[in-house]
Amino acid sequence: MNYSYTDRATQLINNRLERFKKHEQNQTIIDHLSFSFGLSDLRHCKRAGFIGSTVDTQTLFPDVPTISDDFDTEGLTPDEVLTAIEIQKQRVNSKMSDFYINTLRVFSRYVLGLELSTPRDKGFHGYNNSMNLVTQEGTKVGFVGIGGQRDTVYFQISGEGCKHLWSHTTPFILHHWLSKVLTISFLSRIDIARDCYDNVFNCINAEKDFFQKAFARKKGGPNPTMAPRHSFNIHGEFDVEMTTVGKRTSPVYWRIYDKKLEQGIEEESLIWYRNEVELKKWTVDCLLDPDSAFAGICDFSQQMINSKGVHTSTSPKASTAATDLASRVKWVRRMCGKALADILEITEGDIKTVLGLIVPDKYITGKSLDIPNIYKNILTEQLRSY
Asked: Who's near 311: CB < 8 A, 6+ residues apart?
């Protein structure tokens, strides 16, 4: 299989190679990861190339089941035909369900280094069924939801699960499987963190940097808000030392906190602050080089990383669909229908004259909406229902 990379992805790869040549280790860690993809995309795993085997010789992933096309209804009554079709559907669904589950188990074991539990027979985040992600020792480190909208699968891997994940593979290799094999463009969520042991990048530093606009995104946009979330015991000592920047629902949400305090470590000589960013609906290309992606978020993150940051982004907002035009027509009919009818009567049904009277010249551009035929058909059906 031949793969191509965008300019941004190529830049991330080059940054990673430069550090590799210098024998430099990664400066960040990925502490949480979640993603989703269509069940049907699991069929691509069989064709994915990996070391030691080809598409024809690999035996890890199961073959896509062959669905027999010799379904014969000749001589059956209409009721018998319906019954036969239902039985055939159940047979096909059973075959494909077994294939998807088996492929999912191989993917989890071979690609992620984790195992799947038996189905829990209860939903998860809106998915019809779910399974636990577990380590070989049986520790639960995440969940897998199955049967979401448009028959999708959802993986959620916790911080503990990420430790096992990165001991088995690398973000660069995982990018290949998610982006090139399962055709994932955006991760549901990824947390990237930089641990600091020198008391430089702590909560006080973060609060000072906030007022210097160091958390502003490099590509512009509104400045986030900052909220100290410290708590103290009766002796005036920190029970929790944490500063957050941004809103929890925002694409970018920062947590800067005393990790030693959170872990209950009492070693006085140890200083351990974690600067962690939670990214939602973020491009999967950030896995190519998490350090550069982290540094490219804002000036605050750039100062913690030696290599130059690369700007990565969240999923763009959905563009307005052509069918939104139907809601405008509905509004005009409701608010102006009677008035338009009166004007049409006065002009003896001359629509061109009516439009000339109503539509200002500045809105007449001579350009069509250029709506594809399929949207025009949908639009026509919607307008008929008003």
From this structure: 8, 218, 219, 296
